[in-house]
Amino acid sequence: MKYYLIVGEASGDLHASNLMKALKEQDNQAEFRFFGGDLMSAVGGTRVKHYKELAYMGFIPVLLHLRTIFKNMDLCKKDISRWNPDVVILVDYPGFNLTIAKYVKKHTSIPVYYYISPKIWAWKEHRIKNIKRDVDELFSILPFEVPFFEKHQYPIHYVGNPCVDAVDTFKKGNVESFEAFVSGNGLESKPLVALLAGSRKQEIKDNLPLMLEAAKDFVDDYQLVLAGAPSMDIKSYQPFMREDVPVKVVFGQTYQLLAHAKAALVTSGTATLETSLFRVPQVVCYYVAMGKLVSWLRSKLLKVKYISLVNLVADREVVRELVADSMTVSNVRTELDALLHDEDYRSRMLAEYDRIIHILGPSGASQQAASKMVGLLRMKKR
User: Fold this and answer.
1) What domains does the chain contain, in order, with CATH numbers?
2) What is the rounded end-to-end Cα distance, in angstroms, of the chain?
3) Tally of CB atoms within 10 A around 212
4) Of the residues 24, 146, 189, 350, which has the fewest C-beta atoms closer than 10 A?
């Protein structure tokens, strides 16, 4: 069968490439055409556009590139119609993908599948109407999405979480000792505190200075190690480094770092879930300007109580979220002290991590998604 996939960022490229591998296992006649990245290209098929030509983040960049965005949308629509695949598989990236879904549903008979659903449970809940109208099957990687969509009379498929797959694969193949890790990266033998300050320049600019200031009181007994984001280089971090707060940056070794860390300061995102899967006690740190205003707007606009995936999956506060006006040096310092030295606090958090791991279920998200997709498509062809 012919599969047309659309992703708009690096994480989508990763998850879609794993899905493509699993689809090839289920369907040895699989052909791929896609808007995607290098990882998808490595699996095979024809790349129409690289996701880097689509990924404009923020209001102003989107406005400045509207002409390019519309041009890419038009290309995508025409290319789908011309190639006439057996299915269009959308991966996250709702602003672009829901527009494509609307076109495909209105102008063709091609089924539309959505893998990694739009996070409409957080905000823009009105998009449920578009999804129910334009998306034939939705495949979720977050278990709490199932009751949310069922509430809207739209059943979905929970297939497991790709983070579980990635961490399981790493743990099975990684036998590096703490001594080997610190020696290989020129580190000391002191226990590690991991800093995961985000993947975008603005996140790093906002969060890293506060993280370093909060952690400086602990550097006599612990060493700070910063996980370098894939899209950054050392020059991206140098403006925020301080001579009085020693910190080492390591690139391409986030899982290795988490495997050996005593505690972690984590900017919210998938990293919070990955940190919990490594059973590292953490605090979520997310600074934004005009914190009091943002906190007020959050209470009015967001439909969820938490911003971290850890707490959302658990449906309770497992890790402390220091966001907007609560993201202060004092609060981070107090929380880090508890994570490092309060054994009862650490134990309670680790027990909740075990519950989260049970809720997420076993590894094999890509395989489960591919199996369901191919099964549904074959039933349709009968």
Assistant:
1) 2-160+364-381 (3.40.50.2000), 165-360 (3.40.50.2000)
2) 14
3) 24
4) 189
What Å distances lie between residue 287 and 177, 211, 292, 339, CA to CA? 34, 10, 11, 20
Pure H helices in 110-241: 128-134, 145-151, 162-173, 178-184, 201-215, 234-237
What six digits make up the tokens of 234? 């050392």
pLDDT in tens, 306-330: 889 999 999 999 999 999 789 999 9
Q: What is the pTM of this model?
A: 0.87
Q: Which element (helix H / strand E) includes 104?
A: helix 94-107
Q: Are strands 31-36 and 2-6 parallel, antiparallel or unpaired?
A: parallel
Residues shown for the chain: 382
Rounded Cα distance, 121 and 148, in Å: 7
Q: Identify whether the C-beta of residue 109 lies closer than 8 Å to the C-beta of residue 85.
A: no
Report d(CA 330, CA 334) in Å as an integer: 6
